[in-house]
């Protein structure tokens, strides 16, 4: 192999890696769910806060039985000490 | 000697890859100036009328509020030559029927069997409406429905198109 060809190997490898990475991103975007295919995503069952009473009861269970508090966004680290 | 990564060729390749990665995927296939594809059976198309084609779904909250605006448009401009066809992209006929029964629209609603039309049109958001002039050419497009803002824009555009002479 000639010296100039040897010198080009890192550049070719870098180019290939870049195209593979960004091409992969482009592919991932291309298979995104289309706006008219989002019926399942818009379903009420996809809303984690659809039942406030149920969520409050679950939180109480986590707090009283597992001493885990704050896992839903309350300040603190979930140690139950707040 | 400059490092290979600093070469212009590498820069061009990187720019191309970046452009490919970041290119917007949600872009309408049908845009203002284009002819509109054939509507589903049952929609009809009264000749020489300004036509508002709206893509909606029963699971889409803004679609519901858009129906009230279209009812007002139909009442105000129907006699002057506006026709409204609301194309549902629902896959469940029961959901479509329940929505129509609840909303009781005063304009034409049809289903899009197999989502063939919406796929061909490639709407960028739900709902999306297209305003066609009397010759059947798309003149305006509205992706999404932002209440009074979108309703006002459509009203102004409809008034303008109705004043244009039939070609």
What proportion of the residues of chain B form beta strands (DSSP E)?
Answer: 15-25%
Low-confidence stretches of chain A: none
Number of helices of chain A: 2
- Could you say which structural class the secondary elements and strand pairing of chain A correspond to? mainly alpha
Helix content of chain A: 40-55%
Query: Using DSSP, what is the number of strands of chain B?
Result: 5
> What value does the Rg of chain B take, in angstroms?
20 Å
Task: Kindly give the count of domains of chain B.
Answer: 1
Oligomer state equals heterodimer
CATH homologous superfamily name of chain B? Glutaredoxin
> How confident overall, as mean pLDDT of chain B?
86
Q: Which features would summarize this protein structure in a list?
A:
heterodimer; A: 82 residues; mainly alpha; 2 helices; 52% helix; elongated; B: 167 residues; alpha/beta; Glutaredoxin; 5-stranded mixed β-sheet; 5 helices; 5 strands; 39% helix; globular
Quick synopsis:
The complex is a heterodimer of chains A (82) and B (167). Chain A has 82 residues and is mainly alpha-helical.
What does this structure look like?
Chain A has 82 residues and is mostly helical. Chain A has a domain at 1-32. Chain A has two helices and no strands. The termini of chain A are far apart. Chain B is an alpha/beta fold and 167 residues long. Chain B has one domain: Glutaredoxin (3-Layer(aba) Sandwich). Helices cover 39% and strands 17% of the residues of chain B. Chain B has five helices and five strands. Chain B has helices at 8-22, 61-77, 93-103, 116-121, 148-163; strands spanning 50-56, 82-88, 108-111, 128-132, 138-143. A five-stranded mixed sheet of chain B has the order 3-2-1-4-5. The radius of gyration of chain B is 20 Å and the shape is globular. The chains are: A mainly alpha (82), B alpha/beta (167). Chains A and B meet through helix 1 of A and helix 1 of B.
């Amino acid at each position: 192999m000639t010296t100039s060809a040897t010198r080009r190997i890192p550049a070719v490898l870098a180019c290939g890696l870049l195209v593979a990475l960004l091409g992969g991103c482009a592919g991932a975007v291309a298979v995104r769910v289309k706006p008219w295919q989002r019926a399942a995503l818009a379903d009420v069952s996809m809303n984690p806060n659809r039942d406030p009473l149920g969520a409050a009861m679950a939180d109480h269970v986590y707090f009283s039985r597992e001493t885990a508090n704050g896992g839903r966004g309350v300040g603190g680290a979930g140690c139950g000490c707040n | 000697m400059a490092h290979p990564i600093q070469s212009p060729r590498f820069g061009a390749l990187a720019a191309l890859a970046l452009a490919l990665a970041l290119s917007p995927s949600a872009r309408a296939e049908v845009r203002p100036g284009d002819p509109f594809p054939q509507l589903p059976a049952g929609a009809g198309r009264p000749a020489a009328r300004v036509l508002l084609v709206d893509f909606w779904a029963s699971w889409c909250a803004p679609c519901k509020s858009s129906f009230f605006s279209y009812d007002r448009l139909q009442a105000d401009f129907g006699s002057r030559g506006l026709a409204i066809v609301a194309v549902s992209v629902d896959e469940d006929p029961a959901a479509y029927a329940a929505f129509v029964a609840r909303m009781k629209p005063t304009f034409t609603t049809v289903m899009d069997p197999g989502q063939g039309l919406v796929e061909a049109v490639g709407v960028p958001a739900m709902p999306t409406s297209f305003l066609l002039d009397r010759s059947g050419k798309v003149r305006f497009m509205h992706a999404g429905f932002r209440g009074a803002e979108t309703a006002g824009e459509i009203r102004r555009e409809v008034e303008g198109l109705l004043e244009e002479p039939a070609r």
